[in-house]
Structures are given as structure tokens and as C-alpha cells.
Design brief:
The structure holds 2 protein chains of 2 kinds.
Chain A lengths: L3 E4 L2 E4 L23 H14 L7 E5 L14 E4 L5 H11 L4 E7 H7 L1 H10 L3 E7 L34 H8 L3 E6 L3 H13 L4 E6 L3 H7 L5 H11 E3 L18 E8 L5 H13 L1
Parallel strand pairs in A: 3-4, 3-5, 5-6, 6-8, 7-8, 9-10
Antiparallel strand pairs in A: 1-2, 7-10
Chain B lengths: L2 H12 L1 E6 L6 H13 L3 E4 L3 H13 L3 E6 L1 H16 L4 E9 L5 E5 L4 H6 L8 E3 L4 H18 L2 E7 H5 L49 E3 L13 H16 L2 H4 L2 E4 L6 E5 L1 H16 L4 E6 L7 H10 L2 E6 L6 H7 L3 E6 L8 H10 L1
Parallel strand pairs in B: 1-2, 1-3, 3-4, 4-7, 6-7, 10-11, 10-12, 12-13
Antiparallel strand pairs in B: 4-5, 9-11
Helix pairs in contact in B: 1-2, 1-6, 3-4, 10-13
The chains are: A alpha/beta, B alpha/beta.
The complex binds iron/sulfur cluster (SF4).
Iron/sulfur cluster binds next to helix 7 of chain A.
């Protein structure tokens, strides 16, 4: 129950229902107005609150960047590591203690530029991690330079004449590397995000969710989305839910009327690293 | 047994149950031996995609409560530098073995070098202190690896075993004492929880460590942070944190620094050496003594933190010191900083042991 206090005759709730899961003494957060990361935080907190895993066993790991600041606001065991290295750090944590529910929350730059090799290897090993990649199509924290997800033609701080490098299509790569669970949603899809995060906690093996998110002051402004709302409007008008989409075709241009195909694309079961390692240890001991 | 196997056995004896690494000559036998031995004792051998992943994985596993190690050589060591800093700032115990080979770059993969001695001290960006051991025998590959774990767990910091190709591939008799005779330090784990718990209490040199999953809800951060682990860009927080990170080593030199004296008491000329070079140096010093020269040997078992007091004492008495190394004068630098007498560096970069003759010739001239 929310506690309520009367202040000048007005009822003010003194505790936020999710305070228990937030480091309230670290707020306000550093994110820009219109940024999608607040929505991601809310969904994650809610998913963790409703998960069957006790709070003490939830561990959240990040690298460096705007998204990677997220775990620092959560009242859990949280690890803010180095740029691109959240995945191998989380791999070590999870292998050392498979009882932990290890979630990696990091940006597209962290996971697919500097840390891309680690990610595909964690997928190949099928380490039981939940990897939530917030894709904002640029390096937000350093002022909006282009990266591996920046669409062709997009303007950023370092593509003043438009980007000509072909971007990665994240679900396609991750599925090709063999991830047993692959999904993509936007920050408009809060219910679906909450559901997919809860599903990720249940997946045995590496569960990958791309979360498309507005970054108004950098990518947004330079690419015809004047504020966070404008990008949410784009998501609302042009998202197309298709769980059976042909993944090679769902690359993003971020230009209306091109669609943003979302859905839970892959949901399979294969042996995890931990299951196979346990068998190996049994063999070695006998 | 060869040095690399002794090192791996030392790690197991010290309680290491998690190894992440990437194969590289001349350290690969450590990984090979760990891949066989760790599963037998219920531990984890993880072969990562590169050395950056290896060091990141051991830091993660250490935060889950395990004693952890990786081993590499020059090129891999270079790749590990950034996350060595992460280990320092997050106060995460781990052991990193560098079996040094000739460099720079890919250099001499199969031949000996000692040219990472400055990199281990200064290679990661920012200010920090390190603890590094330089074994000079197969037995020390075992003993000092155990010690490295004990130091890492006590000081909550990365500790280095700066081996070299000769010691790593040398075969010699190894005595593995019964477990009850091996001193093994266990990590001090945090018991307290709740808002009053300070996981990075800078007022103590060795605050107990909060382990993932044990209910502390700790934030472990690569950013400059306060006692709660919260990132901060405040000037006083940065000062407090660095003073703690550096102080915990500088305040405890007497429990870390280790040297070995051979006939230095009456020596007019002292050779200062470490690792495989100290074996050549001992040979040359013995020869010179036989020829009636008043010479001695100071062996640096811990090149870092630099044994300032011991080297100063030598410098105050001797008329010259000779510093042979398989590099172009790396440990010669701090030696020069701390002695007033003449310093003669013997620089040897042939990918081989410093020939005892080369050291003898220098002694003869003095
Ligand atoms: S730069 Fe972009 S991603 Fe970073 S906080 Fe601002 S809006 Fe969010």
C-alpha cells in the first residue's frame, strides 16, 4: 500500500510503489527530457518485481554509455563496468554462480560496436544471460556520433554529410549467432516490454531483446524527430508486429513510411553453457 | 615439473576455482593444465574470445565470490590493461600471470623477455599501485602464485606474477607441500547489509567485500565513487578514493615487499636482478667472489611495490650497482631514483638469458 501524508490538505504519497527497487537517493537521473531510458527502467523494475526470482539474486551488469547508467539507479547488486565489456563480466558472474539471474542492460554502441565480439561469443556459448540492448542509433553520451546501428543517410555529429556505412540489423545478427530467444520492441510498447522481460528471465540460455528508444537531443533532432514525442508517434504509426518476420528484411531506416517491425521472433530451447559445463565437471570428477 | 604447471598447481592450491584465458605462447601450458585440473576440483575453466574478455570474466567471477586467475604474455597483457584498472578501482581480487616474451608487438613469441616490467606498473591509465612478484624458479612459480592469491584476497586488488619464458618452460623439482602447510588467505566477505553498510569504506585499508547475490545490493562502479559505491565527480570524493586505493598498498609495504640478499653485507658492488636474470647474476657473483671481488646480489622478489628501503640501503654502502635485465633498462629507472652511487645497466634483448659472462665482465671493470 502506498503511504499517504497530508501536506497543506493535499494527499501526497511519501513512498513510490517501486521505491524498494530504486536507489531513490541517486535520483534525479542524468537522462535528457524525452529519452526512452526512463520507460526502460520502469519496465525492468516492474519485471524484476514480478519475477519469481528473489531480489537478492537479481544482478544487473552494464558497460558505458547512457543506457549503462541504468543499473546504478536500481537497488540490486549492480555492476557498471568498462565500455563494451559488460558481456564478458556478466559471463564470469553467471558461470561462477549460476543461481544468479544476470541481466545485461547496455546500449547499441556498447554491445555491437566495441563489444560486438563478446556478444556473439556469449550467444555461441549460450550463457544464460538476459541481454537488453537499448538502441538509440547513435552514441548519445558523447554527443551523438554515428555507430553500427545508424541508418544510411542519417545525420549525426560525425556524419554531417549523412551516414554511408551500412548498419547492423540486430535481431538478424543475434539470431544468426544462435540466440535461443530474440525479440524487438520500442519504448512505446510498455506492456510488451514488460512481458518480454519477464519471459527473458524464464528463458534458459541467452535471451536478447532490442529496445528501440528515442534520443531526442542528438539522433532525433538531426533526423526529423523534433522531440521524444515525435519519435513515439513514428513508433505508433509505423510499428508492425510480426513474430514470424523474415529477419533479414527487418533492418531499420527510421524514416516514415518505412516500418519498425517488432515482435518475439525466436523462442527455442538449447542446452546452456552451465548445463553442459556441469556435465563436464561430473565427467572430470569420475 | 615445468614452471607453467607449477604456477597452475599453485593457483589450485591457493583455492583458485575460476580461470578465464586466451591461449598465447609462452603461457599456454597454464591454460592447458587449468583446463584439466579445474573441473576435477569442481572449478571453472573458461576459454574466452580474447584477453579483454578474459580479464573481464575473471573480474565478474571474483565479484561472485570466487578466487580467480588469468595468464597471458605481452600482447595479451597489453589488451588487458583497461580492465586491470577496473579491477583496481572496483577493488576486485584477481591474479594475472604474465609469462614475458620478447617484444615489442608480436616480437619473439617463443623467446624470453622482461620488458613488461614498466607496463605492469604504469600500463593502465590513471593513478594506482600494484603488487607484482617475479619468480626465479619452478618452486617459486608455485610458491609465489599462492602468495599472489593471498595478497590479492587480502588487499582486494589485481596482483601480478611477472614470470618469463625461461622460468615458465624450465623443468625442475617441485615440492608441493601438504595442504595444511600452505598458508591460504580467505577473502573477508561483508556480512552487514542495509543502508549503514559501506561497501567501499575508505576509512579501512581492507574493507570486507560484498559478494553478488548475498543481499548487499551493492553498486560496483568503474566511475570514481564514494564509500557507498555511488559514482561521483566531486573533488573530495576523488581524493578520498585515490588516497584509499594507493594508501592500502603504500601503508603496508613491510608486509608486501620481499627481497633476497646474497653476500651484500660487505659488497662494494651489488647486482640488482629479478626473474630468470637473477639466476645468471648469481652465477656471475659467485664467479667474481671466487676471483676475490667484493660483490653481492640483491634479488627483487617483488619488483612492485619497488623495494625502496632495501635498494636505498644498498646504494648508501656500495660504490656501484649493476642492473642486468632482458630489456633496455626498465627496473634500472627506479634503481637510479633511489641510489646515489654509480648505476650500470646491462641491457640484453636477444631473446635469451643474460649470459653470466656479460654480468661478470661488468663486475670485473668496476
Ligand atoms: S543522449 Fe540520448 S540516450 Fe542519452 S540520455 Fe540523452 S536522450 Fe537519452
Amino acid at each position: 500500500m502506498t503511504e499517504v501524508e497530508l501536506v497543506h490538505g493535499v494527499e501526497i504519497s511519501v513512498k513510490h510503489p517501486r521505491d524498494e527497487l530504486l536507489r531513490a537517493d541517486r535520483l534525479p537521473h542524468i537522462w535528457c527530457p524525452g529519452c526512452g531510458l526512463g520507460i526502460v527502467t520502469k519496465c525492468l523494475v516492474e519485471a524484476i518485481r514480478r519475477s519469481d526470482v528473489p531480489l537478492d539474486r537479481h544482478v544487473v551488469v552494464s558497460g558505458i554509455g547512457c543506457t549503462s547508467r541504468l543499473p546504478g539507479y536500481l537497488n540490486l547488486d549492480t555492476y557498471h563496468t568498462t565500455h563494451g565489456r559488460a558481456i564478458p563480466f556478466a559471463t564470469g558472474l553467471k558461470i561462477a554462480n549460476p543461481d544468479l539471474e544476470v541481466t545485461v542492460v547496455a546500449g547499441d554502441g556498447d554491445l555491437f560496436n566495441i563489444g560486438g565480439n563478446h556478444l556473439i561469443h556469449a550467444i555461441r556459448r549460450n550463457v544464460d544471460l538476459n541481454v537488453f540492448c537499448v538502441n538509440n542509433f547513435n552514441y548519445g553520451m558523447t554527443g551523438g556520433q554515428f555507430g553500427a546501428t545508424t541508418p544510411i543517410g542519417a545525420r549525426t555529429a560525425t556524419t554531417p554529410y549523412g551516414n554511408f556505412e551500412a548498419p547492423f540489423n540486430l535481431p538478424y545478427i543475434v539470431a544468426a549467432a544462435g540466440a535461443p530467444f530474440v525479440a524487438r520492441w520500442t519504448t512505446l510498447h510498455v506492456r510488451q516490454l514488460l512481458r518480454v522481460m519477464r519471459r527473458a528471465f524464464q528463458i534458459q540460455g541467452l535471451a536478447f531483446v532490442e529496445i528501440i528508444s528515442p534520443c531526442p537531443p542528438t539522433f532525433g533532432e538531426l533526423n526529423n524527430f523534433e522531440d521524444g514525442y515525435a519519435m513515439m508517434e513514428y513508433f505508433r504509426n509505423y510499428s508492425r508486429v510480426d513474430d514470424h518476420a523474415e529477419l533479414s528484411t527487418i533492418g531499420l531506416s527510421m524514416k516514415p513510411p518505412d516500418p519498425v517491425v517488432v515482435g518475439n521472433f525466436v523462442d527455442t530451447r538449447k542446452p546452456t553453457y552451465h548445463e553442459l559445463e556441469r556435465e563436464l565437471i561430473e565427467r572430470a570428477r569420475n | 615439473m615445468a614452471g607453467n604447471y607449477a604456477c597452475a598447481e599453485g593457483a589450485i592450491a591457493a583455492g583458485c576455482r575460476f580461470y578465464a584465458g586466451y591461449p598465447i605462447t609462452p603461457s599456454s601450458e597454464i591454460a592447458e593444465h587449468m583446463s584439466r585440473r579445474l573441473p576435477q576440483v569442481g572449478g571453472h575453466y573458461v576459454q574466452m574470445e580474447d584477453e579483454i574478455g578474459s580479464i573481464a570474466a575473471i573480474l565478474g567471477a571474483s565479484n561472485a565470490g570466487m578466487k580467480v586467475m588469468t595468464a597471458t604474455s605481452g600482447p595479451g597483457f597489453s589488451l588487458m590493461m583497461e580492465n586491470i584498472g577496473l579491477g583496481v578501482i572496483t577493488e576486485t581480487p584477481c591474479v594475472v600471470v604474465d609469462v614475458q616474451r620478447g617484444g615489442p608487438s608480436t616480437g619473439l613469441p617463443t623467446l624470453v623477455g622482461q620488458a613488461d616490467m614498466m607496463q605492469v606498473r604504469w600500463g593502465s591509465h590513471g593513478d594506482y599501485e600494484v603488487i607484482a612478484f617475479a619468480p626465479n624458479s619452478v618452486q617459486e612459480m608455485f610458491d609465489l602464485t599462492v602468495k599472489a592469491f593471498n595478497m590479492a584476497e587480502k588487499f582486494r586488488t589485481p596482483v601480478f606474477v611477472m614470470a618469463d619464458q625461461i622460468i615458465a618452460h624450465m623443468t625442475d623439482r617441485l615440492v608441493i607441500p601438504p595442504p595444511e602447510d600452505i598458508e591460504v588467505v580467505q577473502r573477508k566477505k561483508a556480512m552487514k547489509q542495509g543502508p549503514s553498510f559501506l561497501p567501499f569504506d575508505f576509512s579501512q585499508d581492507f574493507p570486507p567485500m560484498a559478494i553478488a547475490g548475498e543481499g548487499h545490493h551493492v553498486n560496483v562502479d568503474s566511475l570514481t565513487h564514494d564509500e557507498r559505491g555511488y559514482p561521483s565527480a566531486k573533488h573530495d570524493v576523488s581524493e578520498r578514493m585515490l588516497e584509499h586505493l594507493i594508501g592500502k598498498i603504500r601503508n603496508n609495504l613491510e608486509t608486501i615487499v620481499q627481497v633476497e640478499h646474497y653476500l651484500t653485507d660487505d659488497a662494494k658492488v651489488v647486482v640488482i636482478a629479478y626473474g630468470s636474470t637473477s639466476r645468471s647474476a648469481l652465477h656471475a657473483v659467485k664467479e667474481a667472489r671466487r676471483a676475490g671481488m667484493k660483490v653481492g646480489l640483491l634479488r627483487l622478489i617483488t619488483p612492485w611495490p619497488f623495494p625502496v628501503r632495501e635498494v636505498e640501503r644498498i646504494g648508501a654502502k656500495a660504490k656501484a650497482v649493476v642492473v642486468p635485465e632482458i630489456n633496455y633498462g626498465q627496473i634500472e629507472h627506479p634503481v637510479r631514483e633511489h641510489v646515489d652511487c654509480r648505476v650500470i645497466g646491462i641491457h640484453h634483448a636477444a631473446g635469451s638469458l643474460v649470459p653470466p659472462d656479460k654480468i661478470y665482465a661488468a663486475l670485473e671493470k668496476l
